Amino acid sequence: MAYVLQIDFKMLGPFGDEMAEAFSDLAKSINEEEGFMWKIWTESPETNEAGGIYIFETKETAEKYLDMHSKRLAGFGITDINVKIFAINEQLTKITHGPLN
Amino acid sequence: MAYVLQIDFKMLGPFGDEMAEAFSDLAKSINEEEGFMWKIWTESPETNEAGGIYIFETKETAEKYLDMHSKRLAGFGITDINVKIFAINEQLTKITHGPLN
Hints:
Chains A, B: This is Monooxygenase. The first copy, chain A, has three helices and four strands; from the N terminus they run E-H-E-E-H-E-H. With 101 residues, chain A is of the alpha+beta class.
């Protein structure tokens, strides 16, 4: 059963095209993580926040990624992160066209 | 440009199949909301939390839905919600296969 990992944190930038350029290699590497299905990259230049919505195949792979990613963020000086891991109600998600494949 | 609305809150249930049964009509109605693209329904029976990850076509339609939905949640007795609206970095999201269509 798929799980959601939602993360956000304060970040002073870069955003937009500069963010895409800075993190494109990182993005490619995320595709190789165990259990990874997809990620939507979130950003809010107005409030200096960024983050991501990830889907992993299992709770264990979501937790393993979070552990690694938390350390990576700390390496960027980002330590105060909001994070939740959730199960997915698949029946309701199917009704509202949530993409899980 | 699409926007993410992420919401979560404390909830004592129902979860799983009972949640799906309780909220299936609500789920169908969400499909009719202005600018709505999709929603993943999140739940965590272990921590008594639930919520959703939504994609809306614009920031304005996300904000409009949030305003309505906050009042609806308050009607269920849920007033302490964590909520963020984010823009999406489409270039990075494309690399990591984030589904925006």
